[in-house]
Each structure stands twice: as structure tokens, then as C-alpha cells.
Specification:
36 strands; mainly beta; single chain; Methylamine Dehydrogenase, Chain H; 1 helix; four-stranded antiparallel beta sheet
Length: about 425
């Protein structure tokens, strides 16, 4: 299916093939602490990022595990609460049963009232995925509600695999990997109504016509003017050096029109040569100057993926620069699925799915004079039962500058030889 994420086993096999000649190292630039090892009953394969609330609690999702209503469990939403004196208390806020959604593989977002919103890439009333809301109740319980069940009716999207964003009015925006008028996925808006229901509006249907992108598996970002920016995994026209004749992916902008409707503009089409990346799967981020930053899963000089920057020009064109080419034979990681974050000094941080012993890397990119960037591997995952493995999610900071995220495998081996996944902290 278009836009579907590879399961852990398939990605692991790819990583092993890519990194067969790698060697192990014990030199790390930071200390890792495993906060939670999933055991399957509380979730399995956390693929999305984490978020904090104002009290320092952590929230996230797992794609599998929990109840037995699905073959491997339908997935969970979980909370980690810090304990006095150290450690964390885990709590499953919602256990999906398939009818209300299945396989939440993206991170969550809060609204101003403290409600959580997310997507499931399958399940729901029409089996093609949902947008859901979790609302806190007195006593610590949470109530789940499916706001929209996607429907393969020739117009609606199917298989949402990305996180949502919320605007100042409480409207939700997201993407789907498939469906829509042309089958290539959509960009959608969900608007709340006074009676508690939500109305979906399709802002754009992706079209594999040799120009447009398709199969978006990334969330959106909103600028101050109300324009939306995102990536598509495929499309953009031209060939791709991996044999894909439909292009290596795009970066797009959607601008609202006066009087209604939205206009799409392709800001960059990845061509897959040795100077460009292939298959952008992550969301974009802005810097203070309005430049966009993101990652590609593969491609670049060493075919291990890239970090790129897009800069708007005076002629309304955007120019791409590759900041780093990842090299799976040089210990710095490969296969980038997650978006980036900035620190206050302008350094970039991210995760790579594969690494020195095929288990993944947390990295930092530091700008240098002249426009160059230096990459540092802060953590190389190397012990799957004690450590995490195969991170696919973005990082977040706490107030002290520590980094947090999830590893989709590793930890407790109860879910199979790749493990159930972990929540980890990186301490500088």
C-alpha cells in the first residue's frame, strides 16, 4: 500500500544488508538511560515521537501490543510520569481494539484544553485509519473518541501514518499515504463544530502525474502566513537511481486562496543522484530565518540518506543544500526516517535507523564557518536487550537539555528477536 511504513523486521533486514561491513565502537559522546522497556502488554514498536505536558509527563504511542483484539495487539497510547527520587511510572491511557483504530504509528499533539490528538494507520469504521482524540477525565482516566474514519470512496484519503498539527482555532491538519481522487494520498483539515462533531475538508489530492508528489508519510508544518509545508515519499517526475521511474519524492507548499481552496507548489523534487537525497519521510522544520530543514531516508553521496536545507530566494524559488551525507561505512548512521530539532545554539539533532552495528544512531549536526556542518554521533545503539534499536522517531528536549525519544525495537525480547522497543533519554 502506498505510504505504509516498513515493519521493523523488513527495515532491520535492509539495515543489515547496508551495514554488513561495519565495526563496533564503545566511544560515545553522551550517556543513554533507558526509561521504559515495552513488554508487549503495554505496547510494542513505538514508532512515533514523544511529547511533554507542562508537568513533565511524557506521552507517546505504540503501533502494536496491548489488547489481543488484533493479531499482534492493536496498539496503545501511553504516559510516563516521573517518580520522586528517580524512575518513571508507566500507564496505558488507551488500548485500541481495531474498531476505534489500529496501529497508531505517529506522535501525538495537545490542544489548548489538554486533549491529545493522533492518527491510526488502520482500523476504524472503514478499516482505513482514523483521527482520534483522547480527553482527560477526573480521576486520571482518559476517554477516546474517533473524530474521523477514513473511507476509500474515491475522494477521502486512506492510511494516515503521520502526526497531526493544530492551529490557533483548534483545526487539525494531516496527510494520508494513499487514497484521494488519484490514489496518491491527500492533505486534509478537520474542523471542530459546536455539536462536538468534526468536518473533514480535503485541501489537496496528490497526483502521480510526473510532476506532483504522492504517498506522504510525514506531518505538516505551518508558517505565520497560514501556508502548509510537507514532503512526499515518491513523485516529482523523472527517474530515481533505485529504479523508481516515478521520482524520489518532493517538498511541497500549500497556500490558502482568497475565497477558498488551496494552491500547491512543488518547492523541490529529489532526483536521486549522488548529490541529492531519495525518499523524504520526515516532517520539516523552520529556522528563525524561514529556511526549511529535513531528512531523506536514502540517497546522497554514500546512499545512506541526507540532511538538507531549503532556502527561499528573491525569485520565489527555493534552493536546496545538502548539509550532511550519511555513510553507513563511517559510523554516522543511515536510513533517516525522523524529523530534526534545533537547540538554542542552532545545532540540529536527529536519529538514524541504522548504525554502526545495524541498530541506530542519535546524532548532532553543528554549523561551522563557511556553511559547513560537522556531524557527531551522540549515541550508537549496540545492545538490543539492554538498549534500544532502530529509532524511527524525532527527538525532544527537556528543560535541562536532555534528549528523549523512542526506539522501535530492542529492550525486552518478549516480542521476538528484535525486542519490543524502548523509551530512552540521552544526557549530554
Amino acid at each position: 500500500m502506498q505510504g505504509e511504513r516498513l515493519p521493523v523486521v523488513s527495515r532491520a533486514a535492509l539495515a543489515i544488508l547496508l551495514a554488513a561491513t561495519l565495526y563496533a565502537t564503545s566511544a560515545y559522546a553522551a550517556t543513554e538511560k533507558v526509561l521504559l522497556k515495552f513488554d508487549g502488554r503495554d505496547g510494542w514498536q513505538p514508532g512515533g515521537g514523544l511529547i511533554f505536558d507542562s508537568a513533565g509527563n511524557i506521552y507517546g504511542t505504540t503501533a502494536f501490543g496491548g489488547s489481543d483484539d488484533c493479531a499482534y495487539g492493536c496498539g496503545t497510547v501511553f504516559e510516563l510520569t516521573p517518580k520522586t527520587g528517580g524512575g518513571w511510572t508507566r500507564k496505558v491511557l488507551h488500548d485500541f481494539n481495531g474498531r476505534d483504530g489500529q496501529q497508531p504509528d505517529a506522535g501525538l499533539v495537545f490542544d489548548a484544553k489538554g486533549n491529545l490528538y493522533g492518527t491510526t494507520q488502520a482500523g476504524g469504521a472503514n478499516i482505513y485509519g482514523t483521527v482520534f482524540e483522547l480527553s482527560p477525565k477526573a480521576g486520571g482516566a482518559w476517554t477516546e473518541k474517533a473524530l474521523h474514519s477514513f473511507n476509500e470512496d474515491g475522494k477521502d484519503g486512506v492510511y494516515p501514518v503521520a502526526s497531526l498539527i493544530v492551529d490557533a482555532l483548534g483545526n487539525l491538519y494531516g496527510t494520508t499515504g494513499g487514497g484521494g481522487t488519484y490514489g496518491g494520498g491527500i492533505v486534509f483539515e478537520l474542523a471542530p463544530k459546536e455539536d462536538g462533531t468534526w468536518t473533514e475538508k480535503i485541501l489537496h489530492s496528490f497526483n502521480d502525474d510526473g510532476k506532483d508528489g504522492y504517498a506522504s508519510s510525514a506531518g505538516l508544518v505551518l508558517d505565520a502566513s497560514g501556508n502548509l509545508y510537507g514532503t512526499t515519499f515518491y513523485g516529482g517526475g523523472g527517474g530515481c537511481n533505485e529504479g523508481n521511474t516515478h521520482g524520489c519524492g518532493t517538498i511541497f507548499e500549500l497556500a490558502p486562496n482568497v475565497g477558498g481552496g488551496w494552491t500547491e507548489k512543488i518547492l523541490h523534487s529529489f532526483v536521486g543522484n549522488s548529490k541529492d537525497g531519495n525518499y523524504p519521510e520526515s516532517s520539516l522544520i523552520f529556522d528563525a530565518s524561514g529556511n526549511l530543514y529535513g531528512t531523506t531516508e536514502l540517497g546522497g553521496v554514500y546512499e545512506g540518506g541526507t540532511v538538507f536545507e531549503l532556502t527561499p530566494g528573491a525569485d520565489a524559488h527555493w534552493r536546496e543544500a545538502v548539509l550532511h551525507n550519511f555513510n553507513y561505512q563511517n559510523n554516522d548512521g543511515s536510513i533517516l526516517d525522523a524529523s530534526l530539532i534545533f537547540d538554542a545554539s542552532g545545532n540540529l539533532y536527529g536519529t538514524a535507523y541504522s548504525g554502526v552495528d545495524n541498530s541506530g544512531v542519535v546524532f548532532e549536526l553543528t554549523p561551522k564557518a563557511g556553511g559547513e556542518w560537522t556531524e557527531t554521533a551522540l549515541r550508537r545503539f549496540n545492545n538490543r536487550q539492554k538498549d534500544g534499536a532502530f529509532p524511527t522517531a524525532s527527538l525532544i528536549f527537556d528543560g535541562a537539555g536532555n534528549l528523549y525519544s523512542t526506539a522501535s525495537a530492542g529492550g525486552d525480547p518478549g516480542c521476538g528477536r528484535f525486542g519490543c522497543g524502548t523509551v530512552f533519554e540521552i544526557i549530554p
